[in-house]
Amino acid sequence: MKMVRTIQVVVNLIANTRTEKGMTVKCELDKGIYEKGIVVTDEELSKINIKRDKFHGERNYTISPNVI
Q: What's the domain count of the chain?
């Protein structure tokens, strides 16, 4: 097995993903710097319109806009 040498290689691997049914993936490297340790409260989390997939919903989900 070959080691991945750069983040760009990982981004390219993800971006070139295709399924048998034709699903494609868009991927780009976010070079932003973000504050660590931000805590999201249960109340804030409950306001997110998230639909978890039956298969590994902890990492397979869709977040949709909230309709006002």
A: 1
